[in-house]
């Protein structure tokens, strides 16, 4: 108890501008301290009570904390002004502990008290909030899934006391939700809820996107809900899962949007859109910023699919360690929650080939042959090239080799790519990545030559035409630059897409050279 008092006195000293070393002896100082508390902070009132439980101000702080936790007045009166069977420092530490501190462990009685307090949160109306097995989860309809419970059932599955671990993590989420509710008006709008969640997660709790050097190797750790809660760091999917878990508790309906390799959340009602970028403190970025040369639209996902996406992130780590059997197991789990997702089928099919299950892998890939992703402009080439014998499984492995920010990493992969395209000169993904590696090294001429080889094999790749336009423009070959720009525009317009990048490139070229006739599209400008 003495150590906890010292800890909270240090906390208060950091928050306020006066000394209260004699607060317990001086009622005026104690009253000033009490009046300086954030009037809507549950944790500050509980901490104050823990320090000064024998004083009138301490009892008032406890009463205020109960009020903020939405305990009814009639329930409060029979209680002596103490928290029954509750370790207050542990309770507060659920959401305020340092990220380097060991996990907080509450006793069963304490968990029951918190669960009772949180029983009116909106997620309790979902059937998924009361299930305790993955089998039950798989029988739920999507609209009845409690995302936090679903993910924790999987992520705590191998823990010796999994049910207790799940309740522990959900207590953290419940306390977070209750603190957010304490700052909301009784009939708060969706916009008010979003602002309050943003403030709590990104300002008070200071959840952050981890450094690239950390998440690139252990993206699963920054996706799993328990580790995101403990570290207060998460990649886009990890923090989005936390955000969705709180939104379900606050009866806030959000859309789940997934540009390639990314996820963000969106509130949508009528013609109003509010995008929530969880890697940038919840700011509302325009939807156009997520579109690109080869991204013409944004996929919307369901809560069920988010469970599968967590397995996909975990699979990417196993893949990076070349543990293909574990990768297959994880993709198979993902496929349970997103059985029709073509990307999952493609990645799973590749990994079957990696472990020698050729028949199974090719059968899965044949289901998505000649695939153009709905959100893409150009066709996915790896599947067709593999099935047509223009590459093999080892060549596919090379495409997915990890590259970090170092030159050494780029050169190492480039050497392997060069061997791949020597063996398979028509392997389009190999050529594109080889060209990209040259550009990363500042070798524009070499990159240009490789892209010209690609274009000769497949003139219908919008991204390749865009790069060729830029590279020819840099070499002051403006006719060819216009040719490839016009071709990129034609290909994107055929898919009802008009990328901003192409518009910007057109404006830039116009300032340098007049646009030639459209007949250039049919002329042989490689002579």
Helix share, percent? 55-70%
Biggest sheet character: 4 strands, antiparallel
- Uncertain runs are 1-24, 71-82, 519-525
**What class do helices, strands and sheet pairing give?**
mainly alpha
Total helices: the number is 26
Strand arrangement, largest sheet?
Answer: 3-2-1-4
State the CATH superfamily name of the largest domain. Answer: Tetratricopeptide repeat domain
Explain how this protein is built.
By secondary structure, this protein is mainly alpha-helical. It folds into three domains: 2-98, no CATH class; 143-301, C8orf32 fold (Roll), CATH 3.10.620; 339-522, Alpha Horseshoe (Serine Threonine Protein Phosphatase 5, Tetratricopeptide repeat). 56% of the residues lie in helices and 3% in strands. Strands 3-2-1-4 form a four-stranded antiparallel sheet. The longest helix has 21 residues, at 162-182. The chain is elongated, with a radius of gyration of 28 Å.
Topology:
Elements: H1 2-15, H2 27-35, H3 42-51, H4 56-68, H5 73-76, H6 88-96, H7 108-117, H8 134-138, H9 147-155, H10 162-182, H11 190-204, H12 212-215, H13 225-231, H14 236-249, E1 255-258, E2 264-269, E3 272-276, E4 299-301, H15 303-320, H16 324-337, H17 342-354, H18 358-366, H19 382-387, H20 393-399, H21 407-423, H22 428-440, H23 444-457, H24 462-474, H25 478-493, H26 500-512
Antiparallel strand pairs: 1-2, 1-4, 2-3
Helix pairs in contact: 1-3, 3-4, 3-6, 7-10, 9-10, 10-11, 10-14, 15-16, 16-17, 17-18, 21-22, 22-23, 23-24, 24-25, 25-26
């Amino acid at each position: 108890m003495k150590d906890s008092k010292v800890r909270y006195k240090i906390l208060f000293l950091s928050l306020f501008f006066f000394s209260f070393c004699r607060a317990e002896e001086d009622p005026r100082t104690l009253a000033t301290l009490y009046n300086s508390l954030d009037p809507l902070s549950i944790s500050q009132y509980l901490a104050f009570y823990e320090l000064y439980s024998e004083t009138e101000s301490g009892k008032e702080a406890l009463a205020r904390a109960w009020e903020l936790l939405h305990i009814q007045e009639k329930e409060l009166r029979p209680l002596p002004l103490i928290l029954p069977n509750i370790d207050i420092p542990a309770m507060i530490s659920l959401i305020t502990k340092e990220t380097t501190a060991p996990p907080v462990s509450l006793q069963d009685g304490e968990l029951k008290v918190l669960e009772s307090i949180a029983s009116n949160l909106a997620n309790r109306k979902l059937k998924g909030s009361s299930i305790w097995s993955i089998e039950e989860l798989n029988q739920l309809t999507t609209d009845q899934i409690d995302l936090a419970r679903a993910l924790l059932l999987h992520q705590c599955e191998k823990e010796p006391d999994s049910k207790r671990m799940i309740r522990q993590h959900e207590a953290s989420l419940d306390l977070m939700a209750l603190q957010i509710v304490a700052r909301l008006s009784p009939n708060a709008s969706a916009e008010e809820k979003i602002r309050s969640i943003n403030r709590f997660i990104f300002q008070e709790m200071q959840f952050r996107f981890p450094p690239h050097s950390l998440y690139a190797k252990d993206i699963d750790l920054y996706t799993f809900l328990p580790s995101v809660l403990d570290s207060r760091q998460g990649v886009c999917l990890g923090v989005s899962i936390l955000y969705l878990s709180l939104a379900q508790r606050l009866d806030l309906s959000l859309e789940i949007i997934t540009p390639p390799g990314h996820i963000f959340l969106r509130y949508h009602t009528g013609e109003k859109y509010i995008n929530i970028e969880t890697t940038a403190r919840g700011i509302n970025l325009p939807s156009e910023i997520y579109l690109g040369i080869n991204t013409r639209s944004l996929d919307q996902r369901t809560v069920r699919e988010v469970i599968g996406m967590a397995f996909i992130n975990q699979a990417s780590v196993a893949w990076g360690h070349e543990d293909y059997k574990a990768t297959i197991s994880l993709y198979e789990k993902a496929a349970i929650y997103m059985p029709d997702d073509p990307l999952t089928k493609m990645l799973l099919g590749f990994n079957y080939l990696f472990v020698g299950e050729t028949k199974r892998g090719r059968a899965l890939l044949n289901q998505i042959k000649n695939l153009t992703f709905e959100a893409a402009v150009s066709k996915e080439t790896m599947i067709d090239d593999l099935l047509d014998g223009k590459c093999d499984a080892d060549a596919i492995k090379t495409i997915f080799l990890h590259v970090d920010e170092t030159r050494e990493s780029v050169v190492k992969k480039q050497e392997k790519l060069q061997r791949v395209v020597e063996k398979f000169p028509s392997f389009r993904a190999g050529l594109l990545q080889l060209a990209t590696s040259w550009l990363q090294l500042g070798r524009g001429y070499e990159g240009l030559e490789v892209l010209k080889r690609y274009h000769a094999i497949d003139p219908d790749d919008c991204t390749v035409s865009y790069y060729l336009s830029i590279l020819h423009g840099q070499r002051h070959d403006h006719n060819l630059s216009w040719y490839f720009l016009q071709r990129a525009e034609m290909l994107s317009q055929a898919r009802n897409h008009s990328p901003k990048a192409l518009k910007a490139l057109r404006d830039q070229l116009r300032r340098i050279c007049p646009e030639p006739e459209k007949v250039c599209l049919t002329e042989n400008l490689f002579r």
